[in-house]
Amino acid sequence: MTGMSDRASARLVIPGATPHYSGKVRDVYELEADRLLIVATDNLSAFDVVLPTRIPGKGQVLTRVSAFWFRRLRSAEPHHLISTRVEDLPEPFSRSAELLRDRFMVVRRTQRVDLECVVRARLTGSGYKDYLATGRVAGIALPPGLEDGAKLPDLMFTPATKNDRGHDENITWEQAVEMVGQDTAEALRARSFAIFREASIYAATRGVELVDTKFEFGHLGGELILIDEILSPDSSRFWLKQGDQLRNVMDKQYVRDYLETLPWDKRDPGPELPPEMVERVSRMYRDAERRLTGS
Ligand SMILES: Nc1ncnc2c1ncn2[C@@H]1O[C@H](COP(=O)(O)OP(=O)(O)O)[C@@H](O)[C@H]1O
Ligand SMILES: [Mg+2]
């Protein structure tokens, strides 16, 4: 089987509708009046490859968690979310209401800024990798000897390019300015920090630390609009104190560790996950939602 047919087999089929764009995890449909319908599938990606195995309930968790934050955070305004109500689905989507329930967002279509606005409170993941290789993160030199997960003295804005082929690349502030202009870059950074700070304060009340996250923005009518999913277990690290250890509420590392034991070259198509792993990951997503939103 080719990567294409694997990808196709993991899609949600909505009779009468064709996605305008299929991302790794979500399908985007164009609606009337400059709106988009974003549908979250149960796809799981690892090492930038969509695995053939779906995680039951994952799409609903991502959608509900994003919608929760869009509605809760003052600093999220202005954002793209219009509705998550099945009553607001137009034809032909309304005929697939049960399939779509809790998986979709009707949003305002924007001119996307092709930059991933990453904010970090701690040094881990690709930021830590960059630091180990160069001593710098987003072009900024950090003191030597920092460990994986070290708290950063201040929040860092570490942008990455949005690459439709999947492999996002970390860039420096100067490169971001070159791409989007000084004013937009500064606005993106200020918005990203404000949302991160407000979300961190809320997360702390739930016993969770927001470690890092990724935002996307788009231009619409002269405004910079917060788009895409926000503060979901896929776009963020939320750490929980467990004894004197910090553990990610949604630990995909567990899946990655398993995949590392296989003779797989990390190219499409990926391997199936065993049923007990699917169940465990599915449970982790649901637990992450309960932990963050309380429901
Ligand atoms: N309001 C919006 N306006 C324009 N584009 C959007 C909006 N919200 C989300 N998007 C884009 O829709 C796509 C969502 O699908 P996703 O599965 O995240 O794709 P990808 O694999 O490219 O990240 C992304 O390309 C995202 O940038
Ligand atoms: Mg995306």
Task: Please tell me about this protein's structure.
This protein is α+β, with helices and mostly antiparallel strands and 295 residues long. The chain is built from 8 helices and 17 strands. The protein has helices at residues 3-9, 58-72, 97-100, 125-134, 173-180, 182-205, 253-260, 275-293, and strands spanning 21-22, 26-31, 35-40, 45-46, 49-50, 81-83, 104-108, 111-112, 115-123, 136-137, 140-141, 150-157, 160-161, 208-220, 223-227, 236-242, 245-248. The strands form 4 sheets. Strands 8, 9, 12, 13, 14, 15, 16 and 17 form an 8-stranded antiparallel β-sheet that branches. A 5-stranded antiparallel β-sheet has the order 1-2-3-7-6. Strands 4-5 form a two-stranded antiparallel sheet. β14 and β15 form a beta hairpin. α5 packs across α6 (182-205). Residues 23-26, 28, 36, 38, 80, 107-110, 112, 164, 216, 218, 227-228 line the site of adenosine-5'-diphosphate (ADP).
Keywords:
295 residues; alpha+beta; Phosphorylase Kinase, domain 1; D-amino Acid Aminotransferase, Chain A, domain 1; eight-stranded antiparallel sheet; five-stranded antiparallel sheet; 8 helices; 17 strands; globular; disordered N terminus; binds adenosine-5'-diphosphate; binds magnesium ion
Query: Ligands in the structure?
Result: adenosine-5'-diphosphate, magnesium ion
The CATH homologous superfamily of the largest domain is named ATP-grasp fold, B domain
Q: Determine and state the CATH class of the largest domain.
A: Alpha Beta
Number of strands: 17
Oligomeric state: single chain
CATH topology of the largest domain: D-amino Acid Aminotransferase, Chain A, domain 1
Query: What ranges have pLDDT less than 50 throughout 5 or more consecutive residues?
Result: 1-9
Fraction in helix = 25-40%
Q: Proportion of β residues?
A: 25-35%
H/I helix tally: 8
Order of helices and strands: HEEEEEHEHEEEHEEEEHHEEEEHH
> Strand pairing plus helix content: what structural class?
alpha+beta
- Largest sheet report: 8 strands, antiparallel
What distance separates the N and C termini? 40 Å
Radius of gyration: 19 Å
Shape, principal axes of CA atoms: globular
Q: What is the average of the pLDDT values?
A: 93
